[in-house]
């Protein structure tokens, strides 16, 4: 069955390691016949959530920026994939901001069921991704129809050219193909 997949790349660095994972996931998903859109937030204007909770009554954030468009695409996606660099053993601040700004989806009739995390870090220890996983799982727990379907972690990469031969690229491709 063809799925509508949304990939949100949260690195601000063009050609980043996490974006390379996102591209491989996207290639695999397209090879499997799915419809895939990748959003790179480095080109977007996204403000911080104000905590006003107006979105829970209106279904839309009062801040008029690109986060509203992204949340709208999240609403209609069957699968959402987040790609993030790990900073200080946590997801990027940009990813956290996107999760916060997706608050209008909380009471909405969202379509997504499966969530994936693609993460990279300079630290090669597999535990380096745990903080990002904890944060994402906290967000997912607010959406009872959704679940974490998979994670790809590429550790030991800092500079973009270090990613090219990393085994996580093949894992991301296979995961995308298996969605």
Automatic annotation (TrEMBL):
Where in this chain does the record put each NADPH-dependent FMN reductase-like domain? 4-122
User: Record keywords: Flavoprotein included?
Assistant: yes
InterPro entries in UniProt: Flavoprotein-like_sf (IPR029039), FMN_Rdtase-like_dom (IPR005025), ISF_SsuE-like (IPR051796)
Is this entry keyworded Flavoprotein?
A: yes
Keyword annotations from UniProtKB, A to Z: Flavoprotein, FMN
Pfam families, alphabetized: FMN_red (PF03358)
Protein's recorded name: Flavodoxin family protein
- Native species of this protein? Ruminococcus gauvreauii
**Upper lineage ranks?**
Bacteria, Bacillati, Bacillota, Clostridia, Eubacteriales
